[in-house]
Write a structure and sequence with these properties.
Elements: E1 3-6, E2 9-12, E3 16-17, H1 33-45, E4 50-52, H2 62-70, E5 79-84, H3 95-106, E6 111-119, H4 124-128, H5 134-143, E7 147-154, H6 158-168, E8 175-178, H7 183-186, H8 189-198, E9 203-206
Parallel strand pairs: 3-4, 4-5, 5-6, 6-7, 7-8, 8-9
Antiparallel strand pairs: 1-2
Length: 224
């Protein structure tokens, strides 16, 4: 495994995401825990130490399953990332309730990486609205050691990211964006990377294979 420096940490160049875990009968909420456990064991054996989940993945069950499986490993063997679910505006008033529940579901006392999830056009105004106290609460948890590194993920436009960074950029330690051949231009990842460099914010890559689409080659008719 190749490891990348992140502040004082050595992060595996490849992480394991928990958004598309194996399920039973096509039911996204019914995670195949036995197979997932085998996947995590294999990842650990190959040196993967970064595991990414979120409140809404698998209808809310991803955090619980990953927490249960990772609990079997020494805490110092993995770095765990999860996110505040701002993709649902009804969650904006529940940051404390959700954060405490996430710690319980993941069976940890702190998160190595915690993100404002999916900063985009739909939620940017709410994320920036101080009345919800999201930023203040998360910064407090960081000060208390319950969040080791605070960042954000983004699917929105360059302009939306710029607004977010203008307010919170000095406190963000990393950003997760879709970075692949298509999104380099389709989601203007090139401009976003440049903007993040201006703020000296490292990029964590998500969707490098576009959710598994890139390895699936189209069937081509053999020439006669």
């Amino acid at each position: 495994m190749i490891y990348k420096n992140f502040q004082n940490l050595k992060l595996s160049a490849l992480g394991m995401g928990a958004m598309r875990l194996p399920v039973f009968n096509g039911d996204d909420s019914e995670i195949d825990e036995a197979t997932t456990k085998e996947m995590v064991a294999y990842a650990m054996e190959q040196g993967v130490n970064y595991y990414d989940t979120a409140w809404g993945y698998h209808d809310g069950n991803s955090e619980s399953v990953m927490g249960k499986i990772l609990k079997e490993y020494p805490r110092e063997r993995f770095y765990l990332a999860t996110k505040f679910p701002g993709y649902d505006l009804s969650n904006m008033t529940k940051v404390e309730e959700i954060f405490e529940k996430q710690l319980e579901k993941c069976q940890v006392e702190y998160f190595d990486f915690y993100l404002f999830h999916n900063v985009c056009e739909m939620n940017i105004d709410a994320y920036l609205d101080e009345k919800y106290g999201i930023y203040e609460y998360l910064m407090k948890q960081k000060a208390n050691g319950r969040i080791r590194h605070l960042g954000f993920s983004a699917h929105g436009s360059y302009e939306v990211m710029k607004r977010f960074l203008e307010k919170y950029g000095t406190s963000m330690e990393f950003c997760q964006i879709q970075l692949n051949y298509l999104d380099w231009s389709f989601q203007d990842a090139k401009a976003k990377v440049k903007l993040l460099k201006e703020y000296h914010i490292p990029v964590l890559v998500m969707e490098p294979l576009r959710g598994g689409v890139w390895p699936i080659l189209p069937k081509r008719k053999r020439p006669d």
